[in-house]
């Protein structure tokens, strides 16, 4: 019961601290995201954290599975998560969400020092999560989707609507224009 009261107090503190901060996102009452770095920064990354029932006496689940992190190699993600695990172990028993987010902000360069952006033609998905007692990392290669040129996309957009149907009236005749040209011919 005391853990729930601690969680409620920490939740209120997080809301007041990060009010108006675009980097912080509350996904639920026990689940949060924090973006370290600005959008467009090649060394920016997104941390997801969720609290189990036993939090803060038990460690939070920390994840880097967000699509935002797809440009980060699995080895760098694992390195970041290992450093977070050290911080979690040092802060166990206390409210640590703010501490962990601030640790990430303060140590962004160190955490991302071995980062080389993934820039191949294949999209790489990485599932990396730190759970209560284990650290896991797996990677998957997804099929590359066929890319359309801008001209091809425009042509498609001109022909069909969001339902994939031709817009109403696409083949209607302009009666006014026809009437004007018809009356000019009569004169």
UniProtKB/TrEMBL annotation:
Pfam families in UniProt: RWD (PF05773)
Annotated CDD domains: RWD-RWDD4
SMART domains: RWD
InterPro entries: RWD_dom, RWDD4, UBQ-conjugating_enzyme/RWD
Segments forming domain RWD: 9-111
Entry protein name: RWD domain-containing protein
């Amino acid at each position: 019961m005391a853990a729930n009261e601690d969680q409620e107090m920490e939740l209120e503190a997080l809301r007041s601290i990060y009010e108006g901060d675009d980097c912080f996102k509350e996904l639920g009452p026990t689940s949060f995201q924090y973006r370290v770095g600005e959008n467009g920064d090649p060394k920016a990354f997104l941390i997801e954290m969720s609290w189990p029932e036993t939090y803060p006496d038990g460690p939070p689940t920390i994840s880097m599975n967000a699509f935002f992190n797809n440009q980060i190699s699995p080895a760098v993600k694992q390195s970041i998560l290992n450093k977070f695990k050290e911080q979690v172990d040092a802060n166990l028993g206390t409210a640590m969400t703010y501490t962990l987010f601030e640790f990430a902000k303060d140590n962004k360069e160190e955490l991302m020092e071995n980062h080389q952006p993934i820039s191949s033609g294949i999209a790489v998905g990485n599932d990396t999560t730190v759970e209560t007692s284990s650290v896991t990392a797996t990677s998957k290669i997804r099929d590359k989707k066929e890319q359309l040129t801008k001209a091809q996309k425009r042509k498609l957009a001109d022909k069909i609507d969001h339902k994939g149907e031709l817009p109403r009236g696409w083949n209607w005749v302009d009666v006014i224009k026809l009437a004007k040209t018809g009356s000019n011919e009569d004169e």
